[in-house]
Amino acid sequence: MQFRLFQSLLLAFALCLPTIASADLASVWLAGKGARIQGTGNVFDNIDPGLAFGVEAGVEVLNLELMAEAFILGDDQYMFTGNFGMDFSIELGVRLSIGGYLGVILFKMPEPESKGLSLPSDLRANLEVAQSGLAATIEDGFSSQYGEQANALGQWAMGVGPRVRIQLDKSIVPMVFIGVEASMGYHYMLSGDDVVGEAKNKAIDQTIAEANKDIEVINEDLGNQLRDAVGAKSIDAKDLNGTNYNFGVFLKIDL
Description:
Shape: elongated
CATH architecture: Beta Barrel
CATH topology: Porin
Structural class: alpha+beta
Order of helices and strands: HEHEEEEHHEEHHE
Radius of gyration: 27 Å
Number of domains: 1
Mean pLDDT: 83
Strand content: 35-45%
Helix content: 25-40%
Low-confidence stretches: 9-23
């Protein structure tokens, strides 16, 4: 009798396993989102400050999540994220979820208006005094070596870093949730403008070395004016650190 009871319990448990696995061990979701996205650094200074709209898709297995987002920030401005981490949830009448992730952020910005290097008229005059045709040599040299690449790179920025997110949501019909969320992250971000600035710096260093090969034509002060005028600077790792945060609402289908 006891053996038959034990067999019945084992059978009942086996029949329940698919339900337990699908409910507690794995899930897939898709969400539409509206969010206010902000942060520190040149990239965030240049994005539109209004409400961004986007989508999120993710899969969770054994409490490990893989999640991606895509947002329209403004006219020809986009942000994409990829995140890997985990979260836990508490039922308080509404569902409270707290998660931690390591991820990447990718920005696509409008194409820069400038197609190459253009020197201010007063600086051109000073360079012409130093050596006839020097200003044109600098402009043409940069455009031929870096112009097209600089124009393309200026549209992109990419960062990596950790992120924490808090969500409150409530089911309105089975498998459909409405909620609010807030997240904050730390990023290490390199923009296309940083790469272009480094390229300009190298181009100007090369031009100065060639101009000063026999006699000093471009002194240190004129060289610094040239770098400042065109935004030429070396990449400094300290300038790549920053924070990002967003607040928003979402409508999610959670399977």
